[in-house]
Design goal:
mainly beta, 4-stranded antiparallel sheet, about 120 residues, about 0% helix, single chain
């Protein structure tokens, strides 16, 4: 199982960013994908999850309305898009999947919000 994420992003405040997570080695549609972030000096923060089988989503209340999870089953890729970026959104963003009793993580994508 591998989750490979897109590269680092630099955005101005107020902009949007979209991070990808390409899966391999398992049946993509059978397991939820979670998105988690870690800001500098902070712990892990769960953002929400998406079920690739049907696109069902669950969002942490803090991110409701500003974050969108999507999947493309043809390319077995999950996406998180965040709008109205603020400096506090500077963090490493991770995708995560629990597959057959094991926890798998993408390598992380640094998103930096700065003017």
């Amino acid at each position: 199982v591998q989750l490979v994420q897109s590269g680092a992003e630099l955005r101005n405040p107020g902009a949007s960013v979209k991070v990808s997570c390409k899966a391999s080695g398992y049946t993509f549609t059978s397991y939820w994908i979670d998105w988690v972030r870690q800001a500098p000096g902070q712990g892990l923060e769960w953002m929400g999850r998406i079920r690739p089988e049907d696109g069902d989503t669950k969002y942490a209340q803090k991110f409701q309305g500003r974050v969108t999870f999507t999947v493309d089953t043809s390319t077995v890729t999950a996406y998180v898009e965040m709008s109205s970026l603020r400096s506090e959104d500077t963090a490493v963003y991770y995708c995560n999947a629990w597959v057959v009793g094991r926890d798998y993580w993408g390598q992380g994508t640094q998103v930096t919000v700065s003017s």
